Amino acid sequence: MLRAALATGADRAIRIEANDNELDGRLVAAALKAIVDVEKPDLILLGKQAVDGDSNQVGQRLAELIDYPMATFAATIKEETGALLVGREVDGGVLTLRVTLPAVVTVDLRIISPTSVYSKLTQAGPASNTATACASHPCPQSWPPRRSRSKSKRWPTSQAAPRLPPSTSNSSVPRNAPAAPKSKTWPSWSKSSPPFRR
């Protein structure tokens, strides 16, 4: 995993030797704190939970130990000057938080989408967040931006919608064939008797 990170542009990688059976969320957070104290990063990006035990502890414990603001379950991240705008997945949709840097962010699986992460050097796509709450400082009054809802294309009433040519039709019945007579059928559960009578 470290080689893959280096191959995709990371400057350095740090490996900590340990046995899996000796580790828990507290020990991993303590080891990461020692690295953060030396390296002083602006952003600490972690997964939301461990693969083996689904403990969901390391990010929260680390943020408490180093006293950084944090956002959990991030589905989108947008960089601002001195802060991050984080779209956080909650039960009702997406909640947007603004956290000042340095910060700890734990990410959800949706973060790998091509439109999920924007730095100040990349152009942001359309806003998809439904609510905003600012953790560190007030949001501007114009947030979230209002989007005009685009209506689906409708055909004018005076113009008929285009029809497919006969060759692309899946039906084996000719277009001019007379309709089959409708027969009266009872539901399958009451084949022997008509519907209820009074």
- Strand fraction band? 15-25%
Task: Please tally the β strands and state the result.
Answer: 7
Q: Please identify, by name, the CATH architecture of the domain at 2-132.
A: 3-Layer(aba) Sandwich
Major sheet: size, sense and barrel closure? Answer: 7 strands, mixed
Just give the CATH class of the domain at 2-132: Alpha Beta
Shape: globular
Summarize the structure.
With 198 residues, the protein is α/β, with parallel strands linked by helices. Helices cover 15% and strands 21% of the residues.
Can you describe this structure?
With 198 residues, the chain is an alpha/beta fold. The protein has a domain at 2-132: 3-Layer(aba) Sandwich (Rossmann fold). It is built from 3 helices and 7 strands. It has helices at 2-7, 25-39, 58-66; strands at 43-47, 70-80, 83-90, 93-100, 103-107, 117-118, 131-132. Strands 1, 2, 3, 4, 5, 6 and 7 form a 7-stranded mixed sheet that branches. A hairpin with a 2-residue loop joins strand 3 (83-90) and strand 4 (93-100). The chain is globular. Residues 127-145 have low confidence and may be disordered.
